[in-house]
Write a structure and sequence with these properties.
Elements: H1 3-15, H2 17-69, H3 73-86, H4 90-126, H5 132-150, H6 152-158, H7 162-184, H8 189-215, H9 234-261, H10 264-277, H11 279-282, H12 285-299, H13 305-339, H14 349-364, H15 368-374, H16 378-403, H17 405-431, H18 439-459
Helix pairs in contact: 1-2, 2-4, 2-5, 2-7, 2-8, 2-9, 2-10, 2-12, 3-4, 3-6, 3-9, 3-12, 4-5, 5-8, 6-7, 6-8, 7-8, 7-12, 9-10, 9-16, 9-17, 10-14, 13-14, 14-17, 15-17, 16-17
Amino acid sequence: MSRMRFAQMAGAIKRNTMLRRIASSLFSRVLGAVVNFTLVIYLGRYLGAAQTGLYMIGFGAATLLSTLARLGLEQIIIREGAPLIRDAHWHALRRLYRRALFTSLCAGVVIAVVMLALARVMALHIFHKVELGDVLPWFALSILPLTFALIHVPFLQIANRPESSIAILSLWIPLFSLPALLLIHPHSGVAGAQVFLAACVVNALIAFVQWRRFMAHKSTMNANAATLPEPALLAPAMPLLVGNICQMALLWIAVFAVGIAASPNAVGAYSVAQRVALTLSGFLVPPIDALVGPRLAMMRGDKSREEIQYLIQSISSMLFLSATGVFVVILLYGSEILKLFGGDFREGYGALVCLSFGQLAIVASGSIRPLLVVYGLEKMIRNTMMGAALCCVVSCAVLIPLIGPLGAAIATSLALAGEKVIEGFIARRRLGISVFPSTGFYAQHVRLWLNRDAGQRRGG
């Protein structure tokens, strides 16, 4: 690509606010992915596959339960809060913030207490690993600060702070954890869990400070504030809660299933393969959704379905092309990538390839989830994700005894791909919006790009 082309791209990004925000958010996400990747390498090399497996089981439990504690409120906050910021209803926004925070924290306290009480029982009678009983309590304590921090993510997204929301979602915890682990040189999953807890507390403080800074000078004086009704939160959030739990379960069902059926070494190898595969969707989708979700909420009613479809398809095509390149790299060099974590992890190559295929399906669907939420199709999301999670459980039960961790990867990928295909069908049938770009869409944009490039060469 010529220097002129780079200059034109830089100029377009500088002039276009949304492109600038996307570029900045992608930078934050890529930085978070690099730091997280380095963190997992360090854990794998210092803890070994067995202790890494114990750490990942606890990490998965804390992640899944903190999702439960947020009660599916994230997308409801975006849907109800974005218009409040657009119309400068700051008093109503503060009420929404207090309600969402109080509700999620109450749920987080209950869930953390239950996990603390059942930690030993889970270790002995579910995972059959005595040493896991020392790891789980620390991850149970992390649920509350993790919930507190992540409930701020949708608020920062509607406040047009996508970089801050992405950093809270994926950057600050590994960025704090890595130097802390370098200082203490952990030799067990317990030490890793303790560092994770401390990082969650730091992340929560950063989230609170950033939101307070945004709201510090927003006037509470608004003539219409008193007339605004309190939006329902829990009722519309319940389908999303079920959907979010199923979404997280799709990522962790296989880890837990391998943990129950196989050795800690197998859990460690599979978990690291999954973390590598998540780079496909992990650093591409969240920064895009952080911008597209609020924008779709504001476009509804003001823009035509054709304009919304063009936006969704443009994002899907961009993400798919980017992720395909990453998938090819994983396919060719996945075994060498896993060697970075230690020799014990190379056996996860087959699982890595299968899991990457599932992540490619997620990326190809673009911002389909925010689109369905904006149009009030939360129950459709719930039903689709419940079906996918059930299929994953059944497939794991059948395939893991036959082919081990590779069966878990196949089950997860098929469930993820099927879920996105069905959601795309729902968007097409219920909204008249085609999420997946056709070959004609790609051909049209290639022709436009070639014609513009040829015109610029003639002009030069």
